[in-house]
Amino acid sequence: MSKLLMKTSHMSEILVGKVIALNSEGQGIVREDKLVVFIPFTTPGDTIRYHIVKRKKNFATGKLLAVLKPSLQRVKPLCRYYGECGGCQLQHLTYEAQLENKRQIIENALIRIGKFSKLTVLPVVAAQMNWMYRRHITLKIIPHQGFFRAGYIAIDNQTLLPIQHCPLFLAEDNVALAEVQTLLGKISSQQATEGRATLFKTEVNQLILSLNFEKLNKIEAEIIEEFLKQFPRWKGVIVKGGSKKWVWGDPTNFLAVGHLKFLCSPEVFIQNHAEQSLKIYQQIIDLFSKKKQATILDLYCGIGISSLLLSQQGHRVIGIEYNPLAIAMAKENACLNRLTTPQFIEGDVEKVLQKELHDQHADIIILNPPRQGITPAVGVEILRRCPQEIIYVSCMPSTLARDLSLICVQGYRISLIQPYDMFPQTSHVETLVHLIRS
Which residues are catalytic? Predict the structure, then answer.
């Protein structure tokens, strides 16, 4: 319970309280009478001084003013931007505390949203790489003094923080972000509107840059060519604006997963943590390694990594993906690895299941949907096929819990809930769930 210390002239309440837990966004929870207060950058066990920023009927948001007695879980953050930047939420926690809090976030979502009572959420699989693990980062681009600059959105969700370094991506002495800022400082804001910059790190520490403007009249080729000449570790640049697209150098990359090789690029979805994604793929392989040939639907298949790994085991796999470039790469990856049986279909998962694959049977269904989870119609299509097993990989515990509750009431039981720390230092967590038809 919080203790009121004073009210300022603006009636802002300054209180003292103890943090009891973290919410799903990594914010500390303090109880003030019957009100729950969410306070960023606090740790379970902290005794803090804070003030109320915004009050609503059942909860409030607060701002940390001082840590009066730090928790044993509290450590000094590594990043110079931490506390301003909105990218990380948990740098001030020990790594062990991060893992346990993520496990609790999943467990709480399953209880509160999914209405499950007796489920075992296994300990989160830790990452050896807690820093410099991200394959790619995406920055916001905005006009600045007639040109452009890039950065993360600050914690206020409005201000741009023009960073020169991100320890989740590269070492502090790496000047790659400064090089991108230099390039953007040469592109006239009269020729384009705001957009996004994606920096992609290859397996051999080369870099690829993708600039995606909402609107772009033209781009001076000399600026990009000079950038690639001046900074040779950048192997390729993609510039997009509306329906226009320009490419310099080679903006593709190859990933090794097991004995297979995969073509990818910044324009398709790739799991961000190389080490942890390999563990997830291995878990999927292990679950089906002793099964006889099965028909598998791989929904939201991306560039076909799971599809080809399972095809290599002798299964008949059909992958569905809405991104045309990802599907093209999935087909090319099948050729690269001399696998002829996988089938890849471009299109919205819901529509493909309803029409093109309406009568397609499936022994196993694998799904790795975006954060919003599956639509009710996709759920209907999955259950209509009565697969023996379902693998659900999710990056959002709330939508995972919602979808699992709908699947389980139709005769499925959960045999495994295995979280993976795909995003150290943040509140995000990846979860693999294995379901079996009862």
Answer: 395
Q: How many CB atoms lie within 10 A of CB 8?
A: 9
Domain 136-249 CATH (choose: 2.60.120.10, 2.40.50.1070, 2.40.30.10, 1.10.390.10): 2.40.50.1070
d(CA 92, CA 83): 10
**Cβ-count burial 314-325 (b if 16+ within 10 Å, e if not):** ebebbbbbebee
Superfamily of 14-74 according to CATH: Nucleic acid-binding proteins (2.40.50.140)
Tens-place pLDDT, residues 69-122: 999 999 999 999 999 998 999 999 999 999 999 999 999 999 999 999 989 999
Rounded to two decimals, the pTM is: 0.93
